[in-house]
Structures are given as structure tokens and as C-alpha cells.
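Hello,

Following up on my earlier ticket. Below are the two sequence lines again, exactly as submitted.
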Amino acid sequence: MKQILTVASKEFKDGLRNRWLVSITLIFAILSLGLTYFGSAASGTIGIASLSTTVASLASLAVFLIPLIALLVSYDSFVGEQESGTLLLLLTYPLSKTQLVLGKFIGQGSIIALATFLGFGSSALLLAFQPSHDEVLATFGLFIFSAILLGLSFTAIAYIISLSVSEKSKAAGFALITWFLFALAFDLALLAILVGIEDGLSQQGLTQIMLLNPTDIFRLVNLSGLDSSGVNGALAVAIKSGFSTMQLLISLITWVIAPLIIAIFIFKGKKL
Amino acid sequence: MTTSLLSLNNVGKAYRQLTALKGINLTLQQGEVLGLFGHNGAGKTTMMKLILGVISPSQGEVKVMGMAPDSKAAWHTREKIGYLPENVSFYDQLTGLEVLTYFAKLKGFSKKHAIELLEQVGITHAMKRAVKTYSKGMRQRLGLAQAFIGKPKLLLLDEPTVGLDPIATAEFYQTVDQLKTQGSSVILCSHVLPGVERHIDRAMILSSGNMLAMGSLSELRSAANLPLKIVPHGIGNFVLNNAQLAQYLSDDKQTLYVPEREKIPVLKQLLALDSLKDITLETASLDQVYQYYLQDNASQPNTGAHS
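Thanks for your patience. The regenerated structure is below:
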């Protein structure tokens, strides 16, 4: 455990030194404050938008941004150290591969979690000036919690990429492809199936397929609680699908743990 | 009987398409310094990785302090092994002290120990600066400090003097000698560098995964039977007119290449001359010994190991 914490605190320090924490927090804060305040501009008014509109637009923003940033922060964490020679060196230390993966995950995960909390939390602060505090807290709490899980999930996925290739540039390419597949292509494909094939997919079947994509689970968590007026696409069909928020969160947590375990297995079989 | 710190018994490592190392036998005693020489791709790094337990041998047996280094049981021996990889570049954003503290903590040592080591390698003045501002020599010193964490019993150093200026190189060899007297064993992995011969007890020469030669330098020299270089001054054409000596004369008519066993008779003859003003003697350098074994190997392939 001591080894894990040593690695974690070094990774966290590295994240601070690279300005990752500051820049991600700023990006999240500016975008989310902007959406919260100007989100209703489309309807002709400027001012703090309603809770459901805000969370709906924040969620559709976060669903693209968070995976991208998590992949960006973590894609080189192993292949980068492999190129600079420190990975080989670390493996000659009394430090197991599992400890190294977990330590890095805790360190970099904390950076992403903290940035998400601070960045999107700023919107919560703005919304809190409205009446109905309790609702804001609950909805926003769920939003931030699931956003953190989404970030952690893609951090773990980035480790799989980082451990599977031997060049940094390749890892960057695969990270981008991964982002494209999960954040964009998956939904387009689903939509194509829904529209193109008559009776191809039941509502139940659709939701089950959506569990195969952490970004869709994140959407389901955050949008199923709201009135679906602001929601469109494949999602609108899937909403009110019968999965409880708890079930969705558990599947999102699975999307954090499973890639992490796979990454450890890949690491153990990796030739150096 | 002294216990051997490290033993390799007919060790080989083969990858799918490539045999990186084969039939290596070696024992290393406490306090012994071994020089490991060979071209790039000769198998030096593979051998180090095997000793470090990062990879497992495909045949034979490696034992470090009595245990297979790639086994779980050898876990705690890792604290007693120092390693400096070739071309390592440390975390650029962190300061030298942060980097060294990180590695020290992973071996169970404190920040205080890290500061002491930075003093030892002489970069305390820069320890609060980010590593990205370091020169190549300073990075190498940081790497060495890393390898020295916890006074290791076994040190494996891959190209340790690359990037060091002559003074730092001398300091480095001093540290090696010091560690040796404290009972640490050292494996210096290097291209042949001037000055290394005074600090190693034995040398091993590797080429494409085979051990070409191993032994102390004088053993290697006599096995290679390399001639002694003698340059006499001020004796005019004496050598040229002496049939016995003329056979050793090189093309420049100045230098004699004399076999080791003829050394004393030839010297006696030369020293008897009144006109002799000066005489230069040069035994074969490590570099020449190294070249000899490499050429020897190239001219008769598949002969296996000498010794």
C-alpha cells in the first residue's frame, strides 16, 4: 500500500506540475458557467437557465470533453515511461506491476476527479442561488459523481492503450480512435440501426446495448431523471427504460474496474 | 569459501526470431568488479535484465544472492540491487530532489538519504530545479545517485560514464572503488573506454549473444598473445642491422612489436646499448584486446567461448 501511495503522490505532483489540474479545471469551469448562464439564450433570454436544461446541456458537453481529456492525460503514462527508460528501472525496484498501475490510477484519477469537481462545481454554486437548493444539490451531485466515474473509466481505458503499444505516437492515435468510437461512432451506429432496420431493436435491447458504452451510460444516468423535452437522438428512445440510477452507476463503475484489471493483465504479459 | 553473489549457469535467452544470449557462465564474488564489453546488440542489456529479474531466462539458471531474481522470493533482494539503465531520462517536470526522493521511497529510504546521495554525486546546488533544466552530465549524475540508493550489494551500471566530463568520470570511478572496498560487487557495462581497465577485476567480452572471452586483463592479454610495443630512441640503425630484432620491426622502422615471452631478452639487448636515449614501453590496451577477440571471432565463426 505504501508503494501505491508513493507512486500516486508522484503522479499527482506531476499532474500539478504539468498544469493539467489547472487547465482542465479552467476549461470545465468556463464551459459549464457559460452553459449555465447563457444556456437559455436560444429561447431569447439570458440568465440562469432551469436546472434540467442546464444539466442536459452540461451532460452533452461533458460526454465529449471528459473522455477526450482523460485519454489525453493518461495515454502516455506507460508508453512514455517506457520510451524514457524509467519503466524498466521501476520494474527493477521492489514494486509490482499491479502496484504501479494502481498508484498511477489513483494519482491521475485524483487529478481528473478534482478538476471535474472544481470545474463543474462552479456551476452548481451559480445554480444554488436559485430556489430549490435540495434538488440542485442532488441532481448536480449525481452529475459530478457520474462525470468523475466517466473520467476514471477513460483513464483506465487509456492505460490499456498505453500498455498495448510501444510508441507514444501510436498510443496517441489509438486514443483518438477510441474517443471517436465511443463518443461519436457508437451512437451514430445505434441510430442507423434504429432508423434503418424496422423492428430491429426493442427498447429494452437498445438500452442493453447502450450499457456497452460508458459515455451512453453517463448520458442515461443524467438525462433519465429529467423531463425529456431537451433530449433527442437514440437517447430519447432509451430513456425511461427501466434501469434504475443505481444499476446504471454500478455498470459505470464496472467500466472503471474492468479496464483497469485488463490493463494489469496486459502489463503482466508485456515484454520489456 | 566466499559465497558468490551472482551466478549464471549456462544461461540463454531467445526471443521469437532472435537469440539474444546463449551459454553464458559467470560467477561474481563479493567486492568484485566486472567489465562487460560488447558492441550494441551484443547482449549486454539482455544479460543485465536477466540478472535484474525483469525477464526470465529461456534456458539455464540465474541466481542472485542465492535466489532466482525473477521469483517472488527474491522480492526483498531488489532493495540491495542498484541499476542505472542506458539513456534514461527522468521526469522532466519534477526537481532532482523530487525524482530521487521518489526512487528512494520506493526502496524504503527517506528524503534525507536522497539528499545525502545528491551531495555524493555533487548536484546539491541544482536539486531544487526541474530536471528538464539539467545538462546531460547532471542527468547522468542523478541516474548514478539513483543507482547508489541504499548502498547496494550489487550494482549494474549501463554506460555509466556517458556524458560525464573527465573530472566527474574520475569521481565516478572513485565511488566505484569505494563501493568495492565496502563489499559491493559491480558490473560495468560499457563500450571500451580508456581508464576503465584500472577499475575492473575481470572483463567479459560479448558478441552477438556469445561470450568471446572472460578473465582478468592479464589473462586475456596473454591468451590473446598480443605483442608488446617498444620504441627505442637514439640507437640509429642498430635494430635494422640486427637480424634477431629486425623481425619485430614494424613498417615505420621505429617501433618494435615483441611477443610477451621475448620481452626481457629484447629489453636486455636494447638497454646494453650506450647510445640509447629513451625507451617507450606499451602493453596492449584493453581496446586492443577487445579488438583482437572480436576479429578472432569474425575470422572463425561458431568457435564458441575462449577463456
